[in-house]
């Protein structure tokens, strides 16, 4: 994990937030490559969950909502973690994260913990010019509630009837007691949530199962190692009382299994809660049967920062191999799926000081740019390959002296390290086929 963290910083994937002021715990910034990585992960989710489905519509709700939303959802009353402080070193811990409840993991003191106290994870802020209790609001701890309170607006305007889904990707905030494991547990993060509403006609468990399979296929399609991914079925005791079924999608990180996503059958719990507090009828009216009913809800909630981290960890490899020339090479390579890789094709000029080569190379890069995520670079070819391997670029294209004679370029594949001579004219088709 240390190696991956170091690479992420060195190559511009992820930086500590506010680093020049000493950082702020639980917040991270995505650098040029990290921003691309996360965007690609979100696009891959959006493509599969929204664009390819005629039964899912897009949504984007505000981060700050009426405080009653959080009363109804239960977040004001029960969105707590139990925390304890070590009286000796003053460090704070989440009670359920402590392996040994009598010994401080930081300073080793025995029986130095305070009594456990409830700690609400919602971040508070004020709306408007008065900073009194009537102005208190919260940064949302999940995006889902924005969908629930708009359920009626959406199904009426989008002219949808259950089964149908509403999806959104957006920021959420939780004042985690102990952020850590790089970007795994943070205080500001992005969630991709799908709320899929189904009729109460007995097919609800089938719909739940279909989404589980769809999400399984998604991780597989983007190459996440099946051995390091598990769909853990929650027991009755682990699920909230209202949930009929629940699955945690977990990845085996260097520190152990960690949750990426939760898929749950939440029944009518969420709509019921908002109907009760708001007094508004959010039921669906079935024209054919002439009756109102509250749809059942299947939810898939995935953390995009955790998923991006998973792609990074899963792609990371330190490899020793023999290159096509029989030389033993050691390299660090990120084996990203081509849709996830921040850069798909790097184009190099072999010599920095040759205007004709540079011009040719930048021209080729410009021609590829509308079709792929590209980058131009120049200099020592060994170093250029090393750098692109480290950021997971599937193909490198080199323009050399021969290019000026016969318009051919060298294409080098990240995974096999094999090189092929390809006509510049054919480059786009060649790469497209292999990506
Ligand atoms: P955990 O048990 O790890 O605190 P959770 O069960 O509270 O997570 P959910 O409320 O189910 O998480 O949120 C859905 C998803 O949102 C999680 O699977 C995760 O990917 C993401 N998520 C939740 N909390 C965080 C966080 N602090 N940092 C990054 N991602 C988070």
Q: If you compute it from the alpha carbons, what radius of gyration comes out, rounded to the nearest whole angstrom?
A: 26 Å
* Strand order across the largest sheet: 3-9-10-16-13-12-11
How many β-strand runs?
A: 23
Sheet with most strands:
7 strands, mixed
Helices and strands: which structural class? alpha+beta
Spans with pLDDT under 50 lasting ≥5 residues? none
Mean pLDDT reading? 96
Number of separate helices: 13
Which percent bin holds the helix content?
A: 25-40%
User: What is the 3D shape?
Assistant: globular
Bound molecules: adenosine-5'-triphosphate
CA(first)-CA(last) distance: 28 Å
Strand content: 25-35%
Q: Would you give an account of this structure?
A:
Helices cover 31% and strands 30% of the residues. It has 435 residues and is α+β, with helices and mostly antiparallel strands. The chain has a seven-stranded mixed beta sheet, with helices on both faces. β14 (284-286) and β15 form a beta hairpin. The chain is globular and about 75 Å long. 36% of the residues are buried. The structure holds adenosine-5'-triphosphate. Adenosine-5'-triphosphate binds next to β10, β13, β16 and α9.
């Amino acid at each position: 994990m240390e190696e991956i963290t170091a690479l992420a910083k060195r190559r511009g994937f992820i930086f500590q937030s506010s680093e020049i002021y000493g950082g702020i715990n639980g917040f991270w910034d995505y650098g040029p490559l990290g921003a691309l990585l996360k965007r690609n992960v979100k696009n891959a989710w959006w493509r599969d969950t929204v664009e390819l489905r005629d039964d899912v519509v897009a949504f984007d709700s505000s981060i700050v909502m009426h405080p009653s939303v959080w009363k109804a959802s239960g977040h004001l009353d029960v969105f707590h973690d139990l925390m304890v402080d070590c009286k000796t070193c003053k460090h704070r811990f989440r009670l359920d994260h402590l392996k040994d409840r009598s010994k401080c993991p930081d300073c080793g003191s025995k029986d130095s913990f305070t009594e456990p106290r409830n700690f609400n994870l919602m971040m508070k802020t004020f709306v408007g010019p008065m900073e009194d209790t009537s102005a208190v609001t919260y940064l949302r701890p999940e995006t889902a509630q924005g969908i629930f309170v708009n359920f009626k607006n959406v199904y009426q305007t989008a002219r949808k009837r259950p089964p149908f889904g509403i999806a959104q990707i957006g920021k959420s905030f939780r004042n985690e007691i102990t952020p850590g494991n790089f970007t795994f547990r943070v205080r500001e993060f992005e969630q991709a949530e799908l709320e899929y509403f189904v009729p109460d006609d007995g097919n609800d468990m089938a719909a739940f199962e279909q989404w589980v399979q769809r999400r399984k296929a998604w991780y597989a399609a983007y190459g996440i190692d099946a051995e390091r991914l598990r769909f853990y079925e929650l027991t009755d005791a682990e699920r909230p009382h209202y949930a009929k079924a629940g699955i945690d999608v977990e990845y085996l990180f260097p520190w152990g299994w960690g949750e990426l996503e939760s898929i749950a059958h939440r029944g009518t719990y969420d709509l019921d809660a908002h109907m009760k507090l708001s007094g508004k009828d959010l039921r669906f009216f079935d024209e054919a049967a002439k009756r109102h009913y509250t749809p059942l809800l299947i939810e898939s909630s995935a953390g995009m920062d955790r998923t991006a981290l998973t792609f990074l960890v899963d792609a990371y490899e330190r490899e020793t191999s023999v290159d096509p020339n029989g030389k033993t090479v050691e390299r660090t390579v990120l084996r990203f799926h081509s849709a996830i890789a921040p850069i798909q094709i790097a184009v190099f000029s072999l010599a920095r000081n040759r205007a004709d080569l540079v011009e040719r190379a930048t021209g080729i890069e410009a021609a590829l740019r509308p079709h792929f995520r590209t980058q131009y670079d120049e200099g020592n070819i060994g170093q250029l390959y090393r750098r692109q391997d480290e950021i997971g670029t599937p193909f490198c294209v080199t323009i050399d002296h021969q290019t000026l004679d016969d318009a051919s370029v060298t294409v080098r594949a990240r995974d096999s390290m094999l090189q092929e001579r390809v006509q510049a004219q054919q480059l786009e088709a060649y790469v497209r086929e292999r990506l």
